[in-house]
Specification:
Length: 212
């Protein structure tokens, strides 16, 4: 089954893609993760996208499409995949449609207020990378990691300024994809403002009804 997960940053698509991918044996293909890995490894691609990502802007379509095309050519995607964070623009969707038949696009609906609350509350441990949330998953002691006692901090792209920019980019460039996929009979909506479990409860029967 070939799936696309659409939704604002913080809508929960990455978390749900990981859970449902494990359940159904589908690899989660996250362009954000692929780009972050390139930055970490200091590859040529990484050097080109580092600043773009820090500002919360989009990587040029050409680079992104080439990356996804290469990734979807690997054998683990032969039985299907979940695309998380791609496509993000209409030209990316058009490029994808030219070489892949998609079974469904899932739209994780989530309002700005919830997104900002989720992302701005995120805290990460400097030592072990564990993730917390000041409201939903607080550490036992404020600012201190439960697992290793390390210091918790706010990653640069979870600062309010960057979150607002990513949301604006999402509304302007990615939201039009909802209509694009709806017009092709491929769009399915999920209410993603509640818990992860509630989203999974909506998604499972929906996927069972999809042709693949
Ligand atoms: P978020 O944390 O906003 O959900 P991701 O982890 O999916 O974002 O991606 C992080 C960054 O990587 C984006 O802000 C953007 O710069 C870049 N990126 C990821 N996917 C794409 C894409 N399909 N097109 C262009 N840029 C992308």
């Amino acid at each position: 089954m070939r799936l696309i997960f659409l939704g604002a940053p913080g809508a929960g698509k990455g978390t749900i893609a990981s859970a449902i991918g494990t359940e159904r044996g589908l690899p989660q293909v996250s362009t954000g993760d692929l780009f972050r890995e390139a930055v970490k490894n200091g590859t040529e691609l990484g050097l080109r996208v580092k600043g773009i990502m820090e500002r919360g802007e989009l990587v040029p379509d050409e680079l992104t499409v080439a990356l996804v095309r290469e990734r979807l050519g690997r054998p683990d995607t032969a039985k299907g995949y979940i695309l998380d964070g791609f496509p993000r623009t209409i030209p990316q969707a058009e490029a994808l449609a030219a070489f892949q038949r998609i079974d469904g696009a899932i739209n994780f609906r989530c309002g700005d207020e919830v997104v900002v609350r989720r992302l701005s509350g995120r805290r990460i441990c400097r030592s072990c990378g564990a993730i917390y949330h000041v409201e939903n998953m607080p550490p036992r002691r404020e600012g201190v990691c439960d697992r290793c006692g390390g210091e918790l901090y706010i990653r640069d792209d979870y600062r309010l300024e960057s979150i607002r920019n990513r949301l604006r980019v999402y509304r302007e460039q990615t939201e039009p994809l909802i209509g694009w996929y709806r017009g092709r009979g491929l769009l399915h909506d999920i209410d993603s403002e509640q818990t992860v479990e509630k989203s999974l409860e909506q998604l499972r029967p929906l996927l069972a009804g999809l042709r693949s």
